[in-house]
Automatic annotation (TrEMBL):
GO terms for cellular component: external side of plasma membrane. This is CD226 molecule. One of its GO terms (molecular function) is signaling receptor activity. Keywords: Membrane, Signal, Transmembrane, Transmembrane helix.
Amino acid sequence: MDYLTFLLVILHVHKALCEEIFWDTAVKFAENMTLECVYPSVSSFTQIEWFKIHGVQKKFIGIFHPAHGVVVREPYDKRLHLLNSTTAPNKVILSFYNASEADVGTYSCLFNVFPRGSWEKKIRVVQSDSFEAAAPLNCHVVSESGKNVTLTFQLQVDWPVQQVTWEKIQPHQIDLLTCCNLSQGRSYTSKYPRQILSNCSQDIRRSSILILNTTAWDSGLYRCRFTAHSGENETFVAKLTIIDGKTDNQYSLFVAGGTVLLLFVVVIVTIFVIACNRRRRRQKGIPFKESWDTKSKAVNNYRSPISATQPMEDAREDIYVNYPTFSRRPKPRV
């Protein structure tokens, strides 16, 4: 009987350890932190419950009911709020203020959805620095919004693989995307709000994930980890950047339009400068011409007393001169 009790205890401990492995989100501990739980589809739910997991036991924290509101049990009612999002009815938030080390641990969010049943997500709160600092980058992938993106990692070492996981890493949290457990022959279904497709098969040496219809929200760090039976692991980190194709086109049009406008301004300024230079040359030439005309008139006046504006008929009139008539007879000799 004692042997059977000991065996049951071992099985419960093993179950608890397995549950600790398959958390959906890891959140960095902070005095003011929020735990988000998002149901993957918009459905009518009867109520949402929050628990804190201690081994195989769950301690009730609070409950949200669409008709009856929110109830939070002691002692959590003095250091957290249970909120339902007004913009997304399938999203509920557990908000801590003035949290302590006693709040470190694993939390469970349970949706009771009619008629599908229950849906649970596990969130683990850990004391850690920035999660991104512990993820050295291997490659950078850039893609446009709306396209499908595939991230792939080829295992370089030759040892038997036990488990393959993909995670999305942010400064304050890590989200488990896929988990392929080869020793158990099954793939864990993550509670990530976006649909992620992946491959999971025996003797897997190459793992990939497919993100459909990407948006800017999908940008971030993605980590793939191969784990061996011996405990060894091999990791690969890729940075994904999603850019808006429409924004790029608008930017290109803006640059092209700005270039054309700049050339137009340059042409206008050039024409204006040329016109100013011609005007200055004309202004400099007018005094010289007036001086030359004045000198020409002075010379003409000196040569002829007749006015230049006098009619030609007056200039052709006959001129009569009176002079004495001398006798042509010879003088007598004396």
